[in-house]
From TrEMBL:
Lineage, broadest ranks: Bacteria, Pseudomonadati, Bacteroidota, Chitinophagia, Chitinophagales
Segments traversing the membrane: 61-81, 93-117, 168-193
Annotated protein name in UniProt: Lipoprotein signal peptidase
Similarity comment text for this entry: Belongs to the peptidase A8 family.
Native source species: Chitinophaga polysaccharea
Gene: lspA
Pathway(s) where this gene product acts: Protein modification; lipoprotein biosynthesis (signal peptide cleavage)
Single biological process term from Gene Ontology: proteolysis
InterPro entries, per the entry: Peptidase_A8
GO molecular function term, any single one: aspartic-type endopeptidase activity
Name of the top EC class for this enzyme: hydrolase
Amino acid sequence: MKYRHVIFIVILILVIDQTLKFWIKTHMFMQQEFVIFPNWFRIHFIENEGMAYGLKFGGDFGKILLTMFRLVAVVVGFVYMKKLIKEKYSTGLLICGSLILAGAAGNLIDSMFYGLIFNDSIGYDVAKFLPAGGGYGSFLHGRVVDMLYFPIYEGYLPSWVPFKGGDYFVFFRPVFNVADAAISTGVISILLFQKRFFGKHMHPKAADHPVAKDHVA
């Protein structure tokens, strides 16, 4: 796998992610929802100022810090991907790394620029792209657009369930976006297949080890 393949995967994910976010932002009002498949998949428009799946981090200062961390992580990520390619790591690892990198870049674009290029989604008003009065925020203060919602199960838990028995329960509750999904897919795949991805680099062949060669000689 070559570096241009990494760039292609990143660009592909970014195009899908940003196209969907742009459409959502300019065609839906906040909390509007479209049911795609009843009982398990909906398009539900929300925004968040924090991390993936709506998690938050440290108010206004935390928002800037998180955005800067994302920026540094993306830059370092591209450099690190070159290193992995040079050292001939597995194609699977490089694909997963590309997904994580693309996801981080996708949410970074929202955080850096969406406050500048969109006005706010308030009530039943749909946001406009490059509004005459300016955007809803400043540089680094954009909110991440989320829309993918999979409430696979909704209902009251049986009374025998410990601690939560009788409570109303939704699975899966978080609303997320394509960038979040790319990051999660990449991270989970690396955790599941780490031995396959890192095996030959963690345990070099004995024939390649200097001690082994001396012993054989």
